[in-house]
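FORM 12-B: Structure-to-Sequence Request
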């Protein structure tokens, strides 16, 4: 009988997408049944979620847990608090689902429960069923090191991270300014901080941790985890796992690929802030003027403005029609060299298109890996979660991105934007970063090749599950 694996993605496309890709990779190497058990706080699944789940092969099925309510918590609760609560409140339904799966004569009891970075909250339940719990780290190895270090740093520093006079030296990682550490630790008075300290302590309870990165990209953090006594679980580097582009290039959202077909090779800057990133109205204006001023070609995925930088995280939607928020006459002025797309675009297909020469990104880890696999250099514009730390890796660590500077008003100005866009697409800096990116692309492909480091790691862990 085939081995059965259960996967529990926490809310957010940035968690679901790499976990589904992990499932695809596992099926390439082993005969398995995989069940996605999906907690939700939004009611019915959102379209990009449905598109991905509907395209799964028949050995992968999904069960949506009953939606939980978050109506009793303040509107301005931290994103991490909302995600953690969704998971915590879904635990009874997870227990019920595992009971049913365990009784199912076809699928039988899962041999492993695979969860993502918020998943340790479910370890207790896995233990009740004697199912080994594995963590799939949807962020960089450097961020994983920071997770392990958070409880240790909590004991070491009493002040806020932003007030530290020296950069934080995480084992094996490039130094990080305190203010660039992950967002939920930035305010120690917020409940999200305590939740993070408690959750990261649970990382040591995982049977193993699969990381969506590869040894050759982040040798320092992987070595530090192998050698440090603070890292108990076995670490498996299995990346870069990114969603494969769609063969079917028709339908909503794919029109922009036809537009890209008509542009010169490497001439277009792709601008996107991920599934949930949002800008303020003032920032949206500056970005529009900066792109216009740069004189370069661009493809911009836009959402309506919001004061919160992650306002679309749970639904990947634009709250209002975004086009009405652009400066007067903007679309008419840029129509010969720019295209603006509302809300969601086929990112992997865009990054792998020959006309795309640069990516202005919010530095979500999936976006970074997708850019890397396609060899596209970046402008780093981090917004929330661990994105600032990712941008430090890209700039100081790997030298494949420029990071924008936010001024005293919390805004990146049009002159700065225009300068970076020009430099990335047609400047000497852009050429150097492109060449470095192409080296990393080669290393990434090698890690996933038949005898590559990530393939070997994935086979090792899959072997454990199938024993
Ligand atoms: N994505 C996409 N089209 C969009 C926005 C996002 O396909 O218009 C995909 C993107 O390719 C990536 C994921 O959504 O796989 C976003 O994950 P990431 O970690 O980059 O950022 P998050 O959205 O979690 O902040």
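FORM 12-B RESPONSE
SEQUENCE OUT:
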């Amino acid at each position: 009988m085939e081995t059965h694996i259960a996967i529990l993605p926490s809310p957010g496309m940035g968690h679901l997408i790499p976990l589904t890709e992990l499932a695809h990779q596992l099926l390439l190497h082993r005969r398995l049944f995989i069940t996605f058990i999906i907690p939700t706080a939004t009611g019915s699944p959102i379209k990009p979620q449905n598109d991905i789940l509907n395209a799964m092969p028949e050995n992968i099925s999904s069960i949506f847990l009953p939606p939980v309510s978050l109506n009793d918590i303040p509107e301005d609760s931290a994103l991490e608090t909302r995600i953690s609560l969704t998971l915590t409140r879904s635990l009874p339904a997870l227990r019920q689902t595992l009971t049913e799966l365990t009784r199912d004569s076809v699928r039988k009891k899962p041999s492993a429960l695979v969860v993502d970075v918020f998943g340790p909250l479910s370890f207790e339940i896995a233990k009740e069923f004697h199912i080994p719990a594995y963590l799939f780290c949807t962020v960089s190895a450097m961020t994983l090191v920071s997770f392990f270090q958070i409880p240790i740093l909590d004991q070491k520093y009493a002040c806020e991270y932003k007030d530290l006079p020296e950069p934080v030296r995480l084992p094996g990682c490039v130094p990080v300014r305190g203010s660039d550490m992950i967002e939920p630790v930035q305010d120690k008075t917020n409940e999200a901080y305590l939740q993070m300290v408690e959750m990261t302590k649970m990382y040591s309870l995982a049977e193993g941790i699969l990381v969506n990165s590869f040894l050759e990209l982040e040798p320092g953090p992987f070595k530090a985890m192998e050698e440090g006594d603070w890292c108990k679980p076995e670490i498996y580097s299995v990346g870069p796992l990114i969603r494969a582009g769609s063969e079917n290039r028709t339908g909503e959202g794919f029109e922009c690929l036809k537009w890209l077909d008509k542009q010169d090779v490497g001439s277009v800057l792709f601008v996107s802030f991920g599934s949930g990133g949002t800008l303020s109205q003032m920032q949206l204006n500056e970005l529009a003027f900066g792109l216009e001023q740069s004189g370069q070609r661009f493809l911009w995925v836009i959402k309506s403005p919001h004061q919160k930088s992650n306002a679309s995280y749970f639904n990947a939607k634009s709250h209002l029609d975004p086009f009405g928020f652009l400066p007067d006459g903007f679309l008419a002025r840029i129509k010969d060299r720019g295209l603006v797309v509302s809300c969601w675009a086929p990112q992997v297909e865009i990054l792998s298109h020959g006309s795309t020469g640069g990516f202005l990104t919010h530095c979500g880890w999936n976006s970074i890996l997708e850019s890397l696999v396609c060899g596209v250099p970046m402008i780093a514009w981090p917004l929330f979660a661990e994105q600032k730390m990712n941008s430090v890796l890209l700039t100081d660590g790997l030298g494949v991105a420029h990071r924008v500077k936010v001024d005293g008003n919390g805004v990146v100005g049009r002159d700065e934007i225009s300068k970076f866009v020009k430099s990335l697409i047609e400047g000497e800096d852009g050429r150097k970063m492109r060449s470095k990116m192409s080296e990393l692309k080669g290393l990434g492909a090698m890690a996933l090749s038949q005898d590559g480091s990530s393939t070997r790691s994935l086979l090792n862990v899959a072997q454990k599950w199938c024993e």
